[in-house]
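Quick start: read one record
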Amino acid sequence: MLNLLYYDIKATVKKCWYYIAIMAVMALIVRFLCSDAFVSFFKDLNFIYGVVIGVVASGFLGAFGILITIIIIVRIEQWFDENILSAQGQLTNMLPVPSWQIVLSKILTVLIWSIIIMVMAIGVICVVMVGTDYFESFATTLVEIGANNNIEISISGLMVTVGIYFASGITAFSALCFTVQMVGQLFGSYRNIGILIAFIVILAISLFIEYKIALIFGIVAPDSIETSKILSFCIMATAKLTFINIIMSVIYWGISSFILKRFLKVV
């Protein structure tokens, strides 16, 4: 199992490491563009141009970060297809390991990359924002909101909580795509059509299941929330949604493992 995981991580690192490097370089550039040193190049009333450039650069960095996240997910999905569902999959399925370990290795690889992406996002935010007036204003506002809601909030804790939620969400979505690819493979020469149909059907079913679980956990349409408890409710809801993402990832893992063991024929 560990050998499988090492092999998957090594293969995906070769496909994705340079995206992280590009993002790190861009974060340093944007940090400079948002700094007082850069704005000081624009004298008198022209300083507004420096501010606008910094804001636009920050927005571009955020959009590029989302694009990189999508690209990394696609690259990992391509590796999944290459390693299990293509000709190479014949060798993979001949390994002396059960199918559930093969799929689990892929999902754990996605989880690790999801954590890397979230660490990258938090790092970029820290590089660009920490020490600026915007960050100080945000921190002050956050503390005031916490005080008004009788709850202590730390920026680091908030970032970690949100980061874990998004990491679990990326993992669950990628696991869903794994399952869709597995189902699509059963359609043979109509694989692409099968993938499209499977994605629509499985996504709809998954959203329904998640909605029902959210109702059970009291996340959707709670009976009543006092104004002073809205923030704590949002924090707890984030934790519960993270748990739901984990549940769905386990379900997708089980379905994919079952298909791989019982029905799948690689081509």
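The chain has one domain: 2-262.
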